[in-house]
Every structure is written in C-alpha cells, then in structure tokens.
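Protein Record: Sequence and Backbone Structure Tokens
======================================================

Structure line: whole-number tokens from a learned vocabulary of local backbone shapes, matched to residues.

Purpose: to set a sequence beside its fold so the mapping can be learned.

___
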Amino acid sequence: MRIVKWIFIISIFSAVGLLFHYTLPQRDVVRVTGTEVIRSDFNGWNRLFYAQQDSGNAVATTRDVRLINTVYPDGSVMVFRNEDTGWFNWPPYFKTNSSDVSAHAENLQSTAEAPKWVSIKHYGWRFSPWSIYPNATRLDAVDDPDATFFPLFNTLFFIFISLIMLGLFRLAQRFKRRRIDPVLDDMGETWDSVEAGGTRIGNAIRGMFKKLGGR
C-alpha cells in the first residue's frame, strides 16, 4: 500500500507540474525567418493543444492556423502558432490580436547576415509527431541574443498559489481543532468508559465464578 500511495502522490504532483509548465508563460530570444498559414483539421484529439478560431468567427473543425517560423541563436529552429485564446478558453491569456501579432512578426523578419533578435513570449509545447506548437502571445525586439528576463508573472503566480495553500492549510488545522479533535476526544472518553465498564463487569464475573467454585 505504501508503494501505491507514493505512486499516487507522484502522479498528482507530476500532473500539476506538467499543467503549470504548459500553461505558464515563457520567453525565448529568436530570429523570425517567416510566417505562414496552414489548413488544419481538428477532428483528432490533439485539438486539446490548440486555442480557438479568431475571436468573432464561428467554431469549425477545419480552419487556418497562423505559424511563425523562428531560429534560435544556436541555429536550432522552432515553429510557433499564433492563435487567439479569447475570453472563455484555457489558458486564460485573453489574446484577441493574433492578426496584429502576425503583422508584427512579418515586420521583424531578418536574415542570418543581418539578424534582428526578438523576444517571443509563449506558452505550450512543440511536439512534431502530434503537430503541436507553442502559442506565441507577444513579440518584442531586443538587441542582445543572450538577453534574459526575470519571470515576474510566474514568481507572483507561485507566491499567490503558496499563500492560498497556506491559507487552506491553516483553515484545515482550525477546522480540525474545532470540529474533529473534540469528537475524537469524546470518542476516546466514551471508549475509555466502555473499556472501564467492561473491566468491572469482567472482574465481577470472575469474582462470581470464584465464589461459586469455593462452595
């Protein structure tokens, strides 16, 4: 049972960690090499890893998806999708300007001979066998390909989550002291009384048999 317990705990923490890693924003410094639009069919289960059609358009199982092609300073490539997230979808980035992001990406295109470095803010994963792309939410021009950024939002988010967890822990402790502990104490006292009564009855019965045996 101990192994099952630890497997369950590790599975829960792994699932939460993967959810945070997929959802929380990240920043990469890249060079934009081009943009394109592909026609995608969302009848498959990988639909979970896409956002939605542009805000204001009807829901469809087949639609165009904007892509941003990029290259990292080390030469490796990455393809980002550029989709609206809207107001009622997960994750709640409230992105409704994918057309503007696409225009900004086209304006920031550059070549290896004259690179323009871009900080691209995104969430999600890239997994080519399932045609999954991270979703770009913002692009900013930067001067240094080695530029780093302090994860302010992620830091504040984890502080907020930690405060909530601490508050829930304190509430659980208070509830336990006020509601559960008195009940357990009463049950313990009742059990002690029953145990003491049983001992007295047992002693009385043994005494009675001793008297009967002595006659």
